[in-house]
Structures are given as structure tokens and as C-alpha cells.
Amino acid sequence: MSLPHCPQCNSEYTYEDGANYVCPECAHEWPQQAAEAVEEQRVWKDANGNVLQDGDSVTVIKDLKIKGSSSVVKVGTKVKNIRLIEGDHDIDCKIDGIGAMQLKSEFVKKA
Hints:
Pfam families: YjdM (PF03831), Zn_Ribbon_YjdM (PF08274). By secondary structure, the protein is mostly beta strands.
């Protein structure tokens, strides 16, 4: 098992001391749980399993009713420059003719 590099000086010579990691070069100490949380970053995937990133373009794969409106986002609608966020609806975007809204990543595919 390799130990993480120091988050302050990026030294590779860290060591464990109880429940903490310690850097001998800059004397920075940090809890092991914090290092594990950094490694477990969220990955957003589309309906086909492709990894999504901020700024990607996606295509809607299903007609989506807009809550509180009679409008519908039609299948095949291309959405450019998405922004990924935490939550149930994990894509923040602007759709031409409709405006700003949030989508679920399970209803889009990467364009």
C-alpha cells in the first residue's frame, strides 16, 4: 500500500502516526480519513456509462416533461456546456428555447 503525498508540499516521504499521516519535510499532519475522502471523488456517467465532465455536450435520450409547465424537452435535444453538480438532478444547463434547468445524467448521452 502506498501512502498519499503531502497535500501541502507534495512530498512523497509521508508516514503514518496513529490515525494521522505526517510529512517529515514540512511537518504537516492530516487525518487518514481526510486522505481517503479525497481519493473517493464522484464520477458522473451518462446512460451508456461514458464519463461526463464540465463543459461537455450531451443529447437527451427521452422526452422529459418540465414540472409546472406544459413544455417538453424532446428526445434528441442537444445541450452544450453542461455543469456537473451534486444532487438528484446532477446536470445544470441551459436549453435553447426553454432556459436554465437541471437534468438527471441517466436521461442523457454524451454527444
